[in-house]
Amino acid sequence: MSDQTDQRNAPPATSSERTVARLVNATKRFGAGDAAVTALNDATIEFRKGEFTAVMGPSGSGKSTLMYCQSGLDRLTSGHAYIGDVDVSTLSDQELSVMRRSTLGFIFQSFHLVPALTSRENITLPVDLNADAEVDEAFLNELAVVLGIEHRLENLPSQLSGGQRQRVAVARAMIPRPEVIFADEPTGALDSKTSGELLAYLRTAVDDLGQTIVMVTHDAVAASHCDRVVYVQDGVLVDEGRNPTVDDVLGKIRELS
Amino acid sequence: MIRRTLKLAWFKRNRYALTVVAIALSVAFIVSTLLLTTSISDVGEPLRSAYDNVDVVVTGPEVAGGDGPVQAISAPVPEAVVADLTRAGQMAVGFADPYAQVLTAEGQAGGQDQAAANVAEPWLGGSPLNGFAIVEGATPETVGEAVLDVSTANAASLDVGSTINFVTDLGVQEATLVGLATFGGADNDPYTSTILLSPEHQIFGSGDGFQRVLVADASVADVAAMAPGMEIQSGSDWVQSQQDALNDFLGFFSTFLTVFAVVAVVVGMVIVTNTFTVSLSQRTQELALLRLVGTTRRQLLSQVVLEAVLLGAVGTGIGLLLGLAGVSVLGWFLDVLGLVIERSSETSPTALAIGVIVGLGVTVVASVRPAWKSTEVAPIEALRSSEVDLVDGGGRRRFMTAATLAIGLASLAWGIAQSDILFTGVAIGAIFLALYLGADSLVRVAARMTRPILGRAGPTGTIASRNLEKNAGRTAAAASALMIGIALIGFFTLMAATIGQFIAGDAGEALETDLVVQGIGSQPEPALSDAVLEQIVGVDGVDVLVPLYQTSVSPAGDVEFERAGPGGGSGLGVALTDVEALDAAYTFVLNAGSLDDVGGSSVVIDQATADGFTLSVGDSLTVTSLAGPVDLGIAAIIETSLPGSPQPAIIGDLTLRAALGYGDPATAAYIVGPALASEVNDAIDLPTVEVVSRTDYIDGLSSNLDTILALVYALLAVAVLVALIGIANTVSLAISERVGEIAATRAAGASSRQIFWSLLAEFGLLAIVGIVSGLVFAWIAAASLFNALSGGQIGTPEVDVLTALLIVAAGLGGALIASWFPARSAATTDILDVLRAD
Ligand SMILES: Nc1ncnc2c1ncn2[C@@H]1O[C@H](COP(=O)(O)OP(=O)(O)O)[C@@H](O)[C@H]1O
Ligand SMILES: [Mg+2]
Question: Which residues of B are less than 8 Å from A103 in CB distance?
Fold first, then answer.
């Protein structure tokens, strides 16, 4: 027990106070032999507290793989993925589940709400899954008002528009006050107006609540809302920049391709 | 995307595998029961062959009919009849069928089939009236030689050349087994164990007359003229009547098996329909796409039906093989249970053909409606929503449910009030239909009622409850299938308990004797000779011996009364005993009169008989006995009669034996006193008689019933198994449509354990709805049916809470096991497979 705990809690060499998630020499391969694909190739990266990071790159470059491995949804072939000081590869399914419901938040392109549950129940799902946790009703109401879904809380997902569904998903990701939210193409299924509102809200969450967000996207406009942008190509982290403008990002992409 | 498709295909394979298993089990069940029933009906063949040369059969006039379990009795044919016929130049032989029970090589009784008659017959040599033919060894030429039928010799492990012992009314006899014989080409005379002896053997010299006289080369009219007052039949008519009698007995059994086969098919059909409904709802898009590119509804329909035919063919093929194996299993089961059912080993092609028709038919019929409904969906509609519910939900179904329920309850009320069998039958059918149609509503109600409890387990509990409610329309079929199986189990359990009450009477409380003496391995032949009774009296510690003689009479004149329960029928069972001594062994609940007045032709009757004939103490009842009509005076009326099947309607004193013309030995005896069962057994030293303690005797009263119940349970287990496959099927289908939801819940932090338990809760609840409604239905059906059948004489059956809980636990356990693997595989599925599909 103590061995394992020690290993998990051992401060990684380059970690700083502000690091909430980290990949160290992370490699992920799919398949074997000729058909093998290296989706992530020896990537090392840190995500810092209170920072809104965009992971940019063309389709198939390994963005989602990076996010899945970082968040413990998938396992690395080699290297380490840390959430805080914990190496996610050492966690059991049960521990990963607990981590997902309390330390992490997820937003997906296609919402992934639970059809049997109302908006309210979908939002409180991660908290309710903890037998001993109480939903912070004030925070829930605040989230609902800010996201503009306060009148849709008793509706089922099938009764909501795409934008509303995604805002429910955002609220669900926010409600446990997670250390970090991982968003995989959160605006991919939304029109540009709805996308803009959502991105503005995510920006507010970072600025006002100090929320850490890692957002995978291939959209330069989305990336321009972020504090930091990292570029991925063929599974390798090729570059990064701070406070990007849309033009910065478009230029960089042209340069890389 | 590819992985997801493969994943869904995996679920689909699973679904079809289970459907094939359900079809195969249904087919196997119907084929094996049909094979068994067709092989059973073949016993007439040896009879026909053995009686080939018999032109006329003479029997005595019937005293008590055998239309119920009351033993049929005919007066004997006087020996003078045979003498007269022989003198007139006819070839005639009389058979007295004296009791002779062969002991096994180890000296045990019961080597033969329990229900077989054990008789000795004279060896007729080359006479055309001889139905037996020697197949091994020689004929019995002297008094010390014997031949056995092949079955008896095999069952008792006796070889030609060995010395055999057999018990008769004259005591234990010894003979050398010189040969084995077949009867009409079969291993034995149906339902009879025969020992063939030289006609000189003293067992044939009782002079009491014959059970039947066979005459060759004669006409019915000629014989009738020479044997006035006797029943004269042609040989073929007699064979037919024997066969009919056997078929009556077996008909019940065949009907019984057929009912279960039909149940298995119905349950199978419910499940196959369910599978097609769900699988086609999930494929609405695919079908709509085909419609969009110009496929006609007819083409689409034939595509789906073709799929059903393929599925049905695979299931039926497996089912036929299983059925062929199953018939041996059933047969083995019958043997183990000691249920003597003679069967041939031939395989009836008709049974196999029916199996094929049922297997393919059920699958196709089950697929047509959902297929037709799925093609009804407008192509564009199907492209919009991923899934269209093909189940008849909503108004029309609810109206039908309410209507059938109303009809059911109304006829139930009428049926109970009037004890009317027709209305009760309609009520049972309608209530069943209402339960079937309304199963989805029941599931919804159960889901809503348990939501607070499930909700306490967190959001996964809420999700389970909501999904159960939402999908009730299609998952309810699984609950219905389980309901059918459980309803039958419950019904037969209640029926057995009620019949057990009838057979055992109030023996549990009223029997005060210490020991009971009874015959073994021989029914209905008597077992306790006077010599044996004397031996028992001589044992130290036997204070009182109460011998019981059992016979039957029939009420004289036109009497409509039939006793309720298994002792029913037009005959009346009679127990003759030392009534004064019986007082020490049995405490009756006396409703009227006094036992002191019983004696001579004054008898005791039970309340059911008194009610049936509207008799009071002091009245008299005229019955037909072996000695002709006898007037019996009613001296006392007791609440419940002595135990037995049938329970005797009349209990008389020993002095009545002669008046009723009854000369056979006692069939049982009660012993009061401190003697041990083993001591009495040693003193008698007769393997055909056993002495048991009071408790063993009471337990044994229901053992035949337990045996039959065990068979019923075994048969129903198949139906329940098919129903559980339905549950497993439903679970995997439901899960296959829910991979997205499960992944989303997992991504939000639900552990696989939480998902697993919520799925189990959902389908456990579904099963409980089926189980509970099955039990409730069983109780309603049993209570109303017994009431109607007994003309209101049987009250509501008592519910044994423990048994009910056991059935619930077993059904629920089975359902949980059936849900276990699909639920576990869904709970542990890699969530990325689904999330990546974006
Ligand atoms: N489950 C998988 N099996 C095989 N290859 C995969 C799997 N998931 C992703 N890949 C491959 O890994 C590479 C990176 O994929 P992904 O991370 O999804 O890219 P992005 O999100 O940047 O579009 C791609 O070449 C993709 O085909
Ligand atoms: Mg991606």
Answer: none
Minimal Cα–Cα distance from A107 to chain B, Å?
9
Task: List, for residues B511-544, the tens digit of each pLDDT value.
Answer: 888 888 887 755 545 568 788 888 888 888 888 8
The two tokens of residue B547 are 């011998």
- List pLDDT tens digits, range B405-461: 999 999 999 988 888 888 988 999 899 889 988 998 999 999 999 989 888 888 888
**B495-513 as b/e: b if 16+ CB within 10 A:** bbbbbbbbbbbbbeebbeb
> How far apart are alpha carbons A8 and A99 in whole angstroms?
14
3-state secondary structure B606-654: EHHHHHHCCCCCCCEEEEEECCEEEEEEEEEEECCCCCCCCCCCEEEEC
Identify the residue among B751, B754, B756, B758 best suited for mutation to test binding to A, counting A beta carbons within 10 A and taking the highest. B751
Helix, strand, coil distribution of chain B in percent, nearest 5: 55, 15, 25
Give the minimum alpha-carbon distance from A249 to chain B in angstroms, rounded to a whole number. Answer: 24
Model confidence pLDDT, tens digit, residues B284-328 = 767 776 776 667 778 778 877 888 888 888 889 999 999 888 888
* Cβ atoms of B762 and B467 closer than 8 Å: yes
Domain boundaries, chain A: 51-72+92-256
Q: Considering every ligand atom shown, identify the ligand nearest to the alpha carbon of residue A60 and give its number.
A: 1
Residue B832 CA, closest ligand 1 atom number: 1
pTM above 0.90, yes or no: no
Res. A216: pLDDT tops 90: yes
Ligand 1 nearest atom to the CA of residue A66, by list position:
17
Cα of A62 to ligand 1 centre, how many Å?
A: 6
Distance A112 CA to ligand 1 centre (A): 20
CATH for the stretch A51-72+92-256:
3.40.50.300
What pairing do the DSSP bridges indicate for beta strands B668-672 and B620-625?
Answer: unpaired
